[in-house]
């Protein structure tokens, strides 16, 4: 451990003491904004980095889990418990006391550290909690991020960041005002197969990138909050199409200059009264690279892949967005095929993202997938809907 870091931790033994020391300051001292977060070119570079800088520290960030649903109970909590080096589970927020007690007992969390949506602000008085992990329906992300920041806690927020661009901007502003970190849980930007794929493309394995093809969807059951526009923001584009948008940006290392989309409903069975069933869209990038993407709630066969066609080869991940068993392959122009896949047991992706925020807190760094990264995807999502509504391509102000 460096002297400066040892001194720092000695002085501010926990991130909460750290909060107390700096809360209310208008200084950006804690934000470490050395570069504009969310810039795709930086994502590409930073994707090669690891979080080894805090590997020598036994200290752990205490997470409060907000929302005990599928992603938190099936993935994030087991992932942190099993694989995390710098994160631990210290509190939960739930509307169901029985479930919260059961989960708290399972993870060795004190029953005193169980909160609900009404007394959520009380987390401010729990020094064990350094950060919250927000795993609520999309339409609740903004409120619970802003309330956490005001309570002096760092935030790891699930994707999509929020329902609206305005909400994203308010979340960034609230965390900045409180001098707290805000990270969006884009788990694949910390995943070794994805990082290897990006690395191959940057090294020119496929030559210049001509086309990106990204698809992700599934057949949704009726009754899901994902079909309620107020809670979900929109349909599959918000939920899983966002993975394709994000992949196009980190694979190309560029930001789209224009988008054109088509939003449709084929299955008129009542599920899609509020949100779309399918979205197909194209994006154009400054280099001339084009992307062709599809997302759907109408079929389990709408894909789970990204495929990059370059001037001298291809790189593909299929499946590309799952929690495990991702498969990365490449083919060069002389027909040589290579399986580059790296084994990554589930749910390690979640421990890795939790540890990245921990590292950023310890080292006072901007998270690789900060709020600005979520905001960029939201702007693209909104432009795709606008394009579909207006029947024209939308130019992006990048
Ligand atoms: P879920 O329905 O399984 O869980 C949602 C949780 O929110 C539940 O605990 C529920 O009780 C709680 N909740 C509080 N108020 C609610 C309300 N008004 N309506 C519905 N639920 C309410 O959802 P999930 O699949 O765990 O998704 C949660 C978030 O995580 C979403 O933003 C989703 O996009 C994201 N997610 C991310 C990934 C990933 O791989 N990163 C995967 C799945 C989901």
Describe this structure as you would to a colleague:
- Helix 7 links the parallel strand 5 (154-157) and strand 6.
- The chain is built from 12 helices and 15 strands.
- The strands form 2 sheets. The chain has a 9-stranded mixed beta sheet. A 6-stranded parallel beta sheet has the order 3-2-1-4-5-6, with helices on both faces.
- With 398 residues, it is α/β, with parallel strands linked by helices.
- The chain has helices at 3-11, 15-22, 40-46, 70-83, 97-107, 141-150, 165-177, 192-202, 229-232, 236-252, 348-363, 371-390, and strands at 61-66, 87-93, 114-115, 131-134, 154-157, 182-184, 209-217, 258-264, 278-284, 290-296, 304-310, 313-317, 328-332, 337-339, 394-395.
- Helices cover 35% and strands 20% of the residues.
- Helix 6 runs parallel beside helix 7, helix 7 (165-177) packs antiparallel against helix 12 and helix 10 crosses helix 12.
- The site of nicotinamide-adenine-dinucleotide has 17 residues, from helix 4.
What's the short version?
The protein is 35% helix and 20% strand.
User: Could you list the spans in which at least 5 consecutive residues all have pLDDT below 50?
Assistant: 1-52
Strand order of the largest sheet: 14-13-12-11-7-10-9-8-15
| Helix share bin | 25-40%
Into which percentage range does the β-strand content fall? 15-25%
Could you describe the largest sheet, including whether it forms a barrel? 9 strands, mixed
Indicate the radius of gyration in whole angstroms. 21 Å
Oligomer: single chain
Give the strand tally: 15
Heteromolecules bound: nicotinamide-adenine-dinucleotide
Q: End-to-end distance, in Å?
A: 39 Å
Structural class, from helix and strand content? alpha/beta
Overall pLDDT confidence: 88
Number of helices: 12
- Give the overall form: globular
What is the string of SSEs from the N terminus onward?
HHHEHEHEEHEHEHEHHEEEEEEEHHE
């Amino acid at each position: 451990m460096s002297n400066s870091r040892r001194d720092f931790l000695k002085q501010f033994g926990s991130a909460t003491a750290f909060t107390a020391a700096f809360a209310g300051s208008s200084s950006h001292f804690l934000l470490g904004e050395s570069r504009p977060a969310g810039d795709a070119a930086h994502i590409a570079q930073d994707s090669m980095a690891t979080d080894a800088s805090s590997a020598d520290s036994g200290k752990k960030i205490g997470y409060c889990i907000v929302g005990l649903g599928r992603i938190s109970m099936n993935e994030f909590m087991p992932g942190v418990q099993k694989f995390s080096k710098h994160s631990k589970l210290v509190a939960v927020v739930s509307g169901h006391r029985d479930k919260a007690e059961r989960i708290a007992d399972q993870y060795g969390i004190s029953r005193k550290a169980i909160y609900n949506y009404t007394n959520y602000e009380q987390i401010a008085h729990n020094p064990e909690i350094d950060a919250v992990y927000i795993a609520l329906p999309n339409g609740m992300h903004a409120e619970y991020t802003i309330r956490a920041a005001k309570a002096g806690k760092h935030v790891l927020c699930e994707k999509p960041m929020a329902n609206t661009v305005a909400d994203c901007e308010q979340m960034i502003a609230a965390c900045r005002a409180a001098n707290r970190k805000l990270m969006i849980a884009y788990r694949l930007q910390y995943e070794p197969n994805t990082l290897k794929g990006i690395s191959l493309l940057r090294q020119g394995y496929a030559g210049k990138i001509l086309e990106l093809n990204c698809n992700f969807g599934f057949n949704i059951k009726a009754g899901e909050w994902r079909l309620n526009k107020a809670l979900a923001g929109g349909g599959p584009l918000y939920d899983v199409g966002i993975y394709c948008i994000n992949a196009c940006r980190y694979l190309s290392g560029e930001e789209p200059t224009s988008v054109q989309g088509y939003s449709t409903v084929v299955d008129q069975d009542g599920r899609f009264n509020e949100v779309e069933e399918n979205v197909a869209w194209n994006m154009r990038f400054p280099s001339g690279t084009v992307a062709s993407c599809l997302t759907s709630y109408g079929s389990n066969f709408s894909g789970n892949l990204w495929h990059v066609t370059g001037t001298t080869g291809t790189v593909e991940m299929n499946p590309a967005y799952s929690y495990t068993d991702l498969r990365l392959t490449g083919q060069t122009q002389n027909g040589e095929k290579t399986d580059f896949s790296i084994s990554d047991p589930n749910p390690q992706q979640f421990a890795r993202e939790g540890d990245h925020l921990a590292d950023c807190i310890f080292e006072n760094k901007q998270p690789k997938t900060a709020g600005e990264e979520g905001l960029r995807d939201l702007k693209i999502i909104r432009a795709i809907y606008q394009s579909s509504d207006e029947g024209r391509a939308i130019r992006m102000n990048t």
